[in-house]
Design brief:
Blueprint lengths: L1 H15 L17 H8 L38 H6 L8 H6 L1 H4 L13 H14 L6
Helix pairs in contact: 1-6, 2-6
Length: about 140
């Protein structure tokens, strides 16, 4: 059920154009695939982990990312720019940042060039939403 919800949200985000570029035409609508997104995340593994209790590396651990305010993970030293950015990460805030990190947050320490493909972005968002979800208590 959770994965189906992620796919529906990813499709809605693509249709609404939240992924930082032109939305795909209706006949090209694409639903994010978490398994493909895990492969896209390979670009991110050098700097980030996703598992609960995972280490901070060059970048912060991403577990519990949705709903977290940017620049606030305890134990990680963020740039002043990221701390000042202070958005709450979610479906409408993460994709524009991931498309162009330095253009979105001038002064961020993140050197990644960004995810330019809308399909890869939808896949990555589906994966991250699943892989970083906070455990039910």
């Amino acid at each position: 059920m959770f994965l189906k919800s992620v796919k529906v949200l990813a499709a809605a985000a693509l249709t609404a154009g939240f992924l930082g570029g032109a939305a795909l035409a209706d006949d090209e609508a694409y639903v994010g695939d978490a398994s493909k997104g895990e492969k896209v995340f390979n670009k991110c593994k050098t700097c980030h982990t996703v598992e609960e209790g995972g280490a901070n590396k060059i970048g912060p651990n991403l577990h519990g990312l949705w709903g977290r305010t940017a620049g606030t993970l305890e134990g990680f030293k963020f740039s002043q720019a990221m701390t000042d950015y202070a958005v709450v990460w979610g479906d409408d805030t993460l994709p524009p940042f991931m498309k162009d990190p330095r253009g979105t947050v001038t002064g961020t320490k993140m050197t990644f060039a960004g995810i330019k493909s809308d399909k890869q972005m939808a896949d990555l968002m589906a994966y991250l939403k699943e892989a970083t979800a906070a455990s039910a208590e």
